[in-house]
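Minutes, project check-in

Agenda point 3 was the complex the collaborators sent over. CS summarized: two entities, 166 residues total, and the question is how they sit relative to each other. Sequences were read into the notes so everyone works from the same version.
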Amino acid sequence: MAMFMDVHSGFFGVSEEQLREAHERDLAIEGEEGVHFERAWLDPEQGKVFCLSSGPSREHVARVHEKAGHPTTEIYEVLVDIT
Amino acid sequence: MAMFMDVHSGFFGVSEEQLREAHERDLAIEGEEGVHFERAWLDPEQGKVFCLSSGPSREHVARVHEKAGHPTTEIYEVLVDIT
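CS then shared the predicted structure for the full assembly.
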């Protein structure tokens, strides 16, 4: 399993409820791709969403987001995670 | 206290040890600005670093990174954090 950070742009003014709904759509189908979305952060003023996930590959993460209706091509494989 | 995600670009080929050293430089001085860096992620292939922090403002976060020698202007205030 690898870890990924992906970024969505243009989400200006999105509410917490809207982000939760979008995140639930990911969770509902992520198992089909062997992906799990662990955490998501929103800056509605600058329109950015960051999602942290684990899964087999960037392509798998991309497919979940695409099927859930919020595709992004900006997906980073995180090799180092400092806590 | 607010929460922030910041992004650094151009960190191609950075090693885990180099990231840890950079992170330690942040931790050593973050108290001066009332900031705390909680977590950092690295994609050395695409040269991206993401840092999650808490602090009084984006400007405070920016000052820590600048003093530590790795400035960035890409700092997002995270109003929603879904776990």
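Noted in discussion: The mean pLDDT of chain A is 97.
Follow-up: revisit at the next meeting once the mutant set is ready.
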